[in-house]
Amino acid sequence: MDTDGFAYQRVYPTEMRKRLVGIVGMMGLFAISCGNTTPEEMASLAAKGYYEHLLEGEYEHFLQGKAGADSLPEAYREQLLAGYKQFMAQQERMHHGILDVRVAGAKTDSLLHYTNVFLVLCFGDSTNEQVAVPMVEHNGSWRMR
């Protein structure tokens, strides 16, 4: 203890980093829980996440991002999964694959109750393509329409 009656604890750099990461993480959760995140931001994060699953070859996770995917007939589900795999193989042949997905923006259509998320697919041959992904909120989570 020092003369003021306060006990000081020596904090090492790695411990300090862990504490800082924890504090920043809590602040992020607090910001989200306070409603600072717009529906467009939430839809954008979800769409980007689903497409990242596609890039990783996690076709089942990508399919789970579609609204109504849990009620698809098994034969149709298998056709969709095969189609995703073929699409990625085609992109590999044509453009040396898709290396990254970036969010370019989002716009909500309040009359039709969906949000178009604009993603940029960044290909291995240095070309880019923008795609629109319609997203709907379904039971508190965002799904591809």
Total beta strands: 4
> Poorly predicted ranges (pLDDT <50, ≥5 residues)?
6-32
Task: Write down the overall mean pLDDT.
Answer: 83
Instruction: Give Rg in angstroms.
Output: 21 Å
Report the major sheet: 4 strands, antiparallel
Oligomer: single chain
| Percent in strands | 25-35%
Spatial strand arrangement across the major sheet: 1-2-3-4
N→C terminal distance: 62 Å
Quickly count the helices.
4
Helix content: 40-55%
Structural class: alpha+beta
Shape annotation = flat
Q: Return the string of H and E elements.
A: HHHHEEEE
Characterise this structure:
With 145 residues, the protein is α+β, with helices and mostly antiparallel strands. The protein is 46% helix and 26% strand. It contains four helices and four strands; from the N terminus they run H-H-H-H-E-E-E-E. It has helices at residues 13-33, 39-55, 59-64, 74-95, and strands at 98-109, 114-123, 128-138, 141-144. Strands 1-2-3-4 form a four-stranded antiparallel β-sheet. The longest helix is centred in the middle third of the chain and has 22 residues, at 74-95. It is flat and about 40 Å long. Mean pLDDT is 83; it is low at 6-32.
